[in-house]
Amino acid sequence: MHSVRAALKSPRLLRTEVLAGLVVALALIPEAISFSIIAGVDPQVGLFASFTMAVTVAILGGRPAMISAATGAVALVVAPVMRDHGFDYLIATVILGGLIQILLAVAGVAKLMRFIPRSVMVGFVNSLAILILLAQIPHLVDVPALVYPMVAAGLLVIVLLPRVTTVVPAPLVAIVVLTAITVVAALNVPNVGDEGELPSSLPALFTPDVPWTLETLRIVAPYAVGMALVGLMESLMTAKLVDDITDTHSDKTRESWGQGVANVVTGFFGGMGGCAMIGQTMINVKVSGARTRISTFLAGVFLLVLVVGFGDAVATIPMAALVAVMIMVSVGTFDWHSVAPATLRRMPRSETLVMVVTVAVVVATENLAIGVVAGVVVASVLFARRVAHFTEVIDVAQPDPDTRVYKVVGELFFASSNDLVYQFDYAGDPRNIVIDLSESHIWDASSVAALDAIETKYAAKGKSVTIRGLNEASQERHARLAGHLDAGE
What we know:
- Keywords: Membrane, Transmembrane, Transmembrane helix.
- The chain has a four-stranded mixed sheet with strand order 3-4-5-6. It has a two-stranded antiparallel ribbon with strand order 1-2.
- The relative contact order is 0.16.
- By secondary structure, it is α/β, with parallel strands linked by helices.
- The protein is built from 21 helices and six strands.
- The model has no long low-confidence stretch (mean pLDDT 91).
């Protein structure tokens, strides 16, 4: 992984970072404007948010080269606040959301990433590629016929140019060439200027004019919590994705509080908040080859310079060029190996199901966080079901006419212990029952309750139960809970 210092010393690495930042900035502009429209705010609110998020995360974030800016996921969460209560409450929500992210980071929420299975991660990546592609469709419907050959030309440049040279990122060449053709030939096609008015001044400090009361907190807190969770999940998943692409490790806890600080800063500059952007991150890391914080920082700086200083020129960029870039990002992001027939034949059906559920829920809700949670829940249920089947009760010995020894093999937890009660012969067994748990482990209260229920059933028949072979952790849990739970009948 290249460091910032190494990149500054190497003209070749520095050029890669600078050009990557420029490409990302150009691709960010129409997206930030469209997300502003979703949130119900002026385009400059999304554009300024993208600037402050990118610059702050470049300095404080834990994942170098990842792009954070205004996003559709956050826009969807905060839109109702803007609609029902106005701009000041929206900014208060963004600031509170950032503070919650900082608290979650301190509480160690990043450690939860280890519980996200690979199949959910694959589903996350694939659904993201589909969402990026679907977002381009409005720019291809009810448009002049010229748009289609322009998109095709952009795609050809992006695909073929890297075979000739990689000195300049192919997406940047496609954008410049198609913009030049549009301007010189005076082509009448949709451009960035049609998406919304670009700002003409720099962002300024802004303090939301809201009453600092519990009532205000009641209004904004639910949306702030939603924004914090959605933003963190999307950011941490993106960081993990970049880790995999670059074969490096990043500090997820630092990334979590970095996102929180970035949202607080963004709020105080009148921005709509945001999180990591997977599409732009893929442009930066995978397409352009950036690897350091320089590209992230410059993406924010270039964005501000372009929209404020060169707004008239930026407005002439045809949307066809940006659509071509995002289509290639979608194709490059999708994990084609995961849907290859050979992979599907080899992969356990449960893993494929988890991936499909994740993709289906994300595409249906257009919310990556909901899809990831659904995928994790399905994966957990399938795992619990699979592990539960490994637990069995074996009749191992009858040392004398009055004693029978059973051995429980496997893990005892809520899914496996429910059936445990039905695997003993309460009526036919002798007076003394020994249950050997030396090849098992008690994981939760459900298992202790099941053992209590077994003892209760035998006691009703005038028979006694001895439990032996518990390991230290199981012994401690059993001693603490046995007899204090409602064992039932």
